[in-house]
Structure formats: structure tokens, C-alpha cells
């Protein structure tokens, strides 16, 4: 009985420290109780991977809800309850199906964008090498002479 009481009193001290911002205290609480809650989750879910995920989710919930724990000495039971509720919720939810197939969009990919910028650089270089009169004639049609391309006025 003395061992049980000392464990509960240590849990209470660790909870107080964790509430005060001690990450090490919260980590110690989880290390002390994780084997039990993992076994409970494994038993309920019958899958090691799912059980580990449920315990991870329960751990986050325990961290977020630590201020709502009314009896700090009973952290282990509270954490186990969160874990069991998480596992039960997962059992009630239908298993997720495969993700829907992604539809390709019409936007150019990185390779096409790179090729397009290379072409634009070559066009700029070629236009810059033209005599001034020809350059003035070409620039409006390429849009290279203005911040945004302009359509000829004849296009409406």
C-alpha cells in the first residue's frame, strides 16, 4: 500500500510541475504510465500500430487537458481513460478508404516553367540585339516592353 501511495504522490508532484511548464515532468508522467496504456490500447484495437497511434493521440489530449485533471495523484487512471476513449472512438469510426485520385491541373509544372523562363530570356536577349526601330516594332507584340502584356488595339 505504501508503494501505491508513493507512486500517487509522485504523480501529483509531477503533474504540478508539468502544469508549471516542466516538459521533463510531463515526459516522466508519460514514461511511467505509457506501458500500461499501450497494453490497454493494444488489447482493445488488436493492432500494434493503431494502438501506438491511439496512445500518441491520448498523450496530446492529456497534455492539452492537464489543467482539467481534478485529482493529480490519479494521473495514470485519467491517462488510461483518455486512451481507452480514443481507442473506442476509433473503433466506432469507419476505416478511412483510399484517398481520391488527384486530378492534374492545367498549370505548368516546374520543368515547363523553367523552360518558359529560358525561352523568355532568349527572346529578351534577341529583342535587345535588334536595331532600335525594329525593337520598337517588336516590343508591343511581345509584352516585354511593359509590366503586363498588352494586346494590340485591333484585337478589341
Q: What is the C-alpha radius of gyration, as a whole number of Å?
A: 32 Å
Query: Helix coverage percent of residues?
Result: 55-70%
Order of helices and strands: HHHHHH
CATH class of the largest domain: Mainly Alpha
Provide structural commentary.
It is a single chain. With 156 residues, this protein is mainly α. The protein has two domains: 2-92, Rna Polymerase Sigma Factor, Chain: A, CATH 1.10.1740.10; 111-155, no CATH class. The protein is 68% helix and 0% strand. The chain is built from six helices and no strands. The radius of gyration is 32 Å and the shape is elongated. The relative contact order is 0.08.
Give a topology summary.
Elements: H1 2-19, H2 23-45, H3 48-64, H4 75-92, H5 110-128, H6 132-142
Helix pairs in contact: 1-2, 2-3, 2-4, 3-4
Main traits of this protein?
single chain, 156 residues, mainly alpha, 2 domains, 68% helix, 0% strand
The gist of it:
This protein is mostly helical and 156 residues long. The protein contains 6 helices and no strands. The protein starts with a helix and ends in a 14-residue tail after the last helix.
Amino acid at each position: 500500500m505504501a508503494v501505491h501511495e508513493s507512486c500517487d504522490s509522485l504523480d501529483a508532484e509531477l503533474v504540478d510541475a508539468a502544469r508549471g511548464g516542466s516538459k521533463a515532468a510531463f515526459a516522466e508522467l508519460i514514461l511511467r504510465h505509457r506501458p500500461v496504456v499501450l497494453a490497454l490500447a493494444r488489447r482493445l484495437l488488436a493492432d500494434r500500430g493503431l494502438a501506438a497511434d491511439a496512445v500518441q493521440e491520448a498523450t496530446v489530449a492529456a497534455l492539452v487537458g492537464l489543467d482539467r485533471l481534478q485529482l493529480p495523484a490519479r494521473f495514470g487512471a485519467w491517462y488510461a481513460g483518455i486512451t481507452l476513449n480514443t481507442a473506442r472512438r476509433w473503433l466506432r469510426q469507419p476505416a478511412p478508404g483510399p484517398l481520391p485520385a488527384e486530378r492534374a491541373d492545367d498549370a505548368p509544372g516546374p520543368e515547363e516553367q523553367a523552360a518558359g523562363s529560358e525561352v523568355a530570356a532568349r527572346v529578351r536577349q534577341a529583342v535587345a540585339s535588334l536595331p532600335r526601330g525594329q525593337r520598337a516594332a517588336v516590343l508591343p507584340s511581345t509584352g516585354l516592353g511593359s509590366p503586363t502584356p498588352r494586346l494590340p488595339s485591333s484585337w478589341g
